[in-house]
Amino acid sequence: MGNRSEPSAADAKSRKLLRRRLLTGLGATGVAAAATQLPAPQAAAGPPSRSDLAYYWESQQRSLGYSQGVRVDNVVWLSGTAALDKDFNPVAPDNLPAQMKFVYERIRESLAQYGLGFRHVVRENMYVTDMSALVGALPYRKSVYGDGPFPTSTTLQVNQLLVPGLMIEIEVTACRA
User: Fold this and answer.
1) pLDDT tens for residues 8-46?
2) Which alpha helices (H) appear in 24-130, and where do they start and end?
3) Among residues 162, 160, 177, which one has the least CA distance to residue 122?
């Protein structure tokens, strides 16, 4: 399938030797030397294609120097999305459930710009200022993904987000697989 060919017997032998050296405590220098003996991965058919998305907060994105989203081939990375209106003012300050709904709607719109939806999300990072407030909003998060597929997910509590009053920021990675 694709450009990938089956490993040869020599490749398999090299990998087996490298694995044995790792397991027997060969050390970093020996492993690095052994790794140089492995065949180089095959190059892709051409350079990856990239497209950037400036959407919703376009003027702020341009002035601050970031993209709301970046697509390279089949993978899309969306910047952290917070509950900010078009003028960069907080929406529903200090109300995590309302902010979560707003944020997921912006993420939905951004994914749609690439022809994707939540079923394509493979990674989600959530930053919150109050874990206990998040617990009550988690059923809404579950409703966004329905019965799956579910992304891998990390949630971190932080002291403060970009603008006072913000309680949640979510970034996602999506892939058309």
Assistant:
1) 555 555 555 444 444 444 444 444 444 445 454 455 567
2) 28-35, 58-64, 96-113
3) 177
